[in-house]
């Protein structure tokens, strides 16, 4: 990042121009040489716990109840791709006083929403500390490691695996092998392939629950969810609230349902969010109007790629915009780089378009994820009851598959290999969630 200042005649005010150089290819931001180099030190203020047993509710250096499980690394890292040259320039302009100009030059944090296609991966950098929240789907490791390489990262201080779905941890496994994170934060049982990577990398794995206080370098972070494990991986996602430059940033995984509602209640107690990482790739079944009224985000970032799920839903994008948020997504904007100054100035960079997202997948401003009928006011489920003439307030028949986590309408393409009829109430009681493509009754 270059910083130029043009003084006015009075010398009292300056025009601060932040020039963000974005990398080509998979698209990650080039950063100042001052932030290059190896990371060092583990995240402060937290004690470690093994994945086998008890959750850590409030990590503390003085805690003696949480056992520590450290495994000696046995493997060397594979070679990481060399950073590519910067290819795009995006300029953000902000008015600031002369006295604040020097402060704005040193970022309190840099957050990179990596374009990994249909999946999530966010980098958080605070000084020499670097963490990674999720690692995208299988095949995303190159994009993630390229972005980390441009930040000068040779080893990760921490990773957060929000939940064990492949579009969040598929690429994380290779990143763990290569960048040997010192610590990992999870909510529940770890998938065997990722657990093996943590073991080989010598990573200390720590379960966290609502209320746990963490440190991301110099930045305070708090776990807002889950309070416990329900068995629904999306709902049980680790949700992190980060503070930087006097502003708040939320990372949501795929949280939905009652846990999202609980996060909203917590957010309502504080100032508006500066940036919301939208849950579940903009699905119609997260990011409710009630949640947004409590979170009050100024900006929203959706991590999404080409998909058949109807992400991001037109209803969700409409709700975000109605709440006053400026919306970006990685499908349209590419890798998104956000620099947060010590005084709270936000400077955005994009590897593709800088234009905000104004509509999602589906018809009309209140459309459902599949383009079916939906009511206004941001309801994702209203008007969904057309299958078999059943009302959404009744108990119609829906369908599940042998291995899936959703229930469907008859005729949904996801029923091509297997299908079992089940009553709607039974499907919901069994933890199944509505398909984002066929929009079944709810």
Describe the structure.
The chain is α/β, with parallel strands linked by helices. It has two domains: 37-85 and 106-350, Metallo-beta-lactamase, Chain A, CATH 3.60.15; 387-434, no CATH class. The protein has helices at 98-105, 141-150, 166-169, 172-179, 192-201, 257-267, 289-295, 314-322, 330-333, 424-429, and strands at 2-7, 13-23, 86-97, 107-113, 122-126, 129-133, 158-160, 183-186, 204-207, 213-216, 219-225, 239-244, 247-251, 275-277, 299-302, 326-329, 336-341, 346-350, 397-400, 406-407, 420-423, 433-434. Helix 4 runs parallel beside helix 5 and helix 6 packs parallel to helix 7. It starts with a strand and ends in an 8-residue tail after the last strand.
Keywords:
eight-stranded mixed β-sheet; 22 strands; about 450 residues; seven-stranded mixed β-sheet; Metallo-beta-lactamase, Chain A; about 15% helix
Rg (C-alpha, Å): 22 Å
CATH architecture grouping of the largest domain: 4-Layer Sandwich
The global form is globular
The chain-level mean pLDDT equals 75
Largest sheet: 8 strands, mixed
Structural class: alpha/beta
What is the number of strand segments?
22
The CATH topology of the largest domain corresponds to Metallo-beta-lactamase, Chain A
Task: Work out the strand percent.
Answer: 25-35%
Side by side, the strands of the main sheet go 9-8-7-6-5-4-17-18
The domain count comes to 2
Task: Give the termini separation.
Answer: 49 Å
Under CATH at level 1, the class of the largest domain stands as Alpha Beta
Helix content class:
10-25%
**Total number of helices:** 10
> What quaternary form is this?
single chain
CATH superfamily of the largest domain: Ribonuclease Z/Hydroxyacylglutathione hydrolase-like
Low-confidence stretches: 1-105, 363-393
């Amino acid at each position: 990042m270059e910083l130029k200042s043009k003084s006015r005649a009075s010398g009292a005010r300056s025009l601060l121009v932040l020039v963000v150089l974005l990398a080509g290819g998979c698209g990650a931001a080039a950063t100042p040489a001052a932030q290059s180099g190896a990371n060092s030190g583990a995240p402060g203020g937290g004690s470690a716990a093994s994945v086998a047993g008890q959750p850590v509710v409030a990590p503390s250096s003085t805690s003696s109840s949480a056992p520590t499980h450290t495994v000696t690394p046995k493997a060397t890292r594979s070679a990481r791709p060399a950073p590519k040259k910067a290819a795009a320039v995006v300029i953000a302009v902000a008015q600031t006083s002369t006295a604040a100009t020097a402060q704005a030059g040193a970022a309190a944090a840099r957050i990179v929403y990596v374009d990994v296609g249909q999946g999530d991966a966010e980098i958080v950098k605070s000084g020499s500390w670097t963490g990674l929240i999720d690692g995208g789907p299988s095949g995303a490791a190159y994009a993630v490691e390229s972005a980390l390489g441009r930040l000068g990262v040779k080893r990760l201080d921490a990773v957060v695996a929000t939940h064990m779905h492949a579009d969040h941890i598929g690429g994380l496994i290779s990143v763990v092998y290569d960048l040997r994170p010192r610590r990992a934060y999870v909510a529940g049982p770890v998938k065997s392939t990722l657990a093996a990577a943590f073991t080989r990398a010598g990573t200390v794995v720590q379960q966290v629950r609502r209320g746990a206080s963490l440190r991301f370098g110099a930045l305070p972070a708090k776990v807002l969810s889950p309070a416990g494990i329900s068995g629904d991986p999306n709902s049980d996602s680790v949700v992190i609230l980060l503070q930087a430059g006097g502003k708040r940033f939320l990372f949501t995984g795929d949280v939905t349902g009652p846990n999202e509602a609980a996060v909203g209640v917590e957010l309502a107690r504080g100032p508006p969010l500066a940036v919301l990482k939208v849950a579940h790739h903009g699905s119609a079944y997260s990011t409710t109007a009630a949640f947004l009224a409590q979170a009050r985000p100024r900006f929203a970032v959706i991590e999404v790629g080409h998909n058949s799920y109807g992400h991001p839903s037109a209803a969700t994008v409409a709700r975000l915009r109605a709440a006053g948020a400026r919306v970006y997504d990685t499908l349209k904007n590419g890798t998104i780089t956000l620099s947060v100054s010590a005084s709270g100035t936000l400077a955005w960079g994009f590897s593709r378009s800088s234009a905000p997202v104004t509509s999602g997948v589906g018809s009309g401003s209140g459309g459902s994820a599949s383009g079916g009928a939906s009511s206004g006011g941001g309801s994702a489920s209203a008007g969904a009851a057309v299958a078999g003439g059943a009302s959404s307030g009744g108990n119609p028949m829906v369908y599940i598959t042998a291995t899936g986590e959703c229930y469907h309408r008859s005729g949904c393409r996801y029923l091509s290999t297997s299908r079992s009829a089940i009553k709607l109430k039974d499907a919901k009681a069994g933890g199944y969630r509505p398909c984002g493509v066929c929009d079944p009754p709810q």
